[in-house]
Amino acid sequence: MAIRFEDIKPKIGSRILWDDRADLFTEEAAAAIRAKVEERTVVVFPKVDLTDEEQLRITDLMGGRIRITGRNNVQEIENDDVYQVTLDAKINPQPEYVLGTFFWHMDGITIDTPPPFATLLSCRRKAPQGGQTEFASTYAAYEGLPEAEKAALEGLKAVHSVKASLRHIEDAIPEKVRDAVIGIGLIKEHPIVWTHDSGRKSMIIGTTADHVANMPIPQGRALLIRLQEWAAQPDYSYRHEWEEGDFAVWDNTGAMHRVIPYDERSGRMMHRTTIAGTETIN
Ligand SMILES: [Fe+2]
């Protein structure tokens, strides 16, 4: 097989390299990429310049597409399975959910299906300032916790909501749409430690996690914020500086992600697809 991988950081991130671009679109390559995403959290395809059709082909080969975002966008593209991530008001008249991604989160935690396995992003236009995406491996972060802290997390559950994920920007949302914007999604209780079918453990944390069930609100929120900070430390996280044409795939079931703030007039444009999850949370 004429694809190969190289590590970006010791505990997170790989780059895929290829001789012939056609080698990226085979079932064999998709299985190898999926395994690498699970092992290394994020796989970057430098300057691969995928078309939407090619991105969807990789999405399907790696496990199958799912749509997780409602359609507020007035997209420039026809295909509804590709979501244009942008703050451009002509395309995205309701920017709040994109603004919410300035903060550490996982995708699809408050929907009624298993969380998406992976999110896939192509950089069509980068922002002149900001707009980098950061990834934090909650597998590596969990593994690195002191044993006493791992024991203390056993059995704890957190309550997740879209409202919580927008807490930092709630007062910046126009009042006439605020209740509707923060009211979407379900309120879901998930264990903080997710024991996967593989036996490995990751953490379900990020801004959707509002509080810890059966724990006083201040103590629970302080714990959730400390876990976010722990996972975001440089050993477990990676910041990707996008170049136009870059494509990245990450394991949404074992990582938080966020974008470094950028301006709505920056022109930043990302094309996103999503791979359906197959694992219910245990
Ligand atoms: Fe996201």
Automatic annotation (TrEMBL):
Domain TauD/TfdA-like: 6-274
Coiled-coil annotated spans: none
Pfam family, one: TauD
Record keywords, A-Z: Dioxygenase, Iron, Metal-binding, Oxidoreductase
InterPro entries tied to this protein: TauD-like_sf, TauD/TfdA-like, TfdA_dioxygenase
Entry's family note: Belongs to the TfdA dioxygenase family.
Record protein name field: TauD/TfdA family dioxygenase
Taxonomic source organism: Novosphingobium aquae
Species lineage: Bacteria, Pseudomonadati, Pseudomonadota, Alphaproteobacteria, Sphingomonadales
